[in-house]
FLYWCH-type domain-containing protein (Operophtera brumata), 135 residues
Amino acid sequence: MGYRFRKTKVMGDITYWKCSTHKCHAVIHTFTQTKYGTSAIRISGYTFVKQRKMGSNTRWRCSLEKTSHPQFILTQQGKPAISISGYRYVKQVKMGPKIRWSCAKKTSRGCYAYLHTLDDTKSITITKHNNNHSH
């Protein structure tokens, strides 16, 4: 409660916000990609949609529980990634029909979580998964 965020940058449909009231590193991304075209916020795998605006305050409500099913997404650089349970995996290497994805925090936090999928652009079939994240 009482956290305020300031807009730091806008890239396409996504707006990046940073905490401005507490000495923390909290970040929020807002986007207009709900299936109804409304504004939404995604924080740690949870999605919140705009409920109502009251003066300078906006009230958001949770629209979904934390997603545990994998979704194809794009990184800020436009590269393929998979989002599952609030974690993001980036494409590491392709070996025949299998693709190895490593946790996006591998370099910055030394996380060795990974998953293997079959090469399919329409659905995600996980064949192997190490979900032991270090963060």
In short: The helical segments are 106-109. The chain has a mean pLDDT of 76.
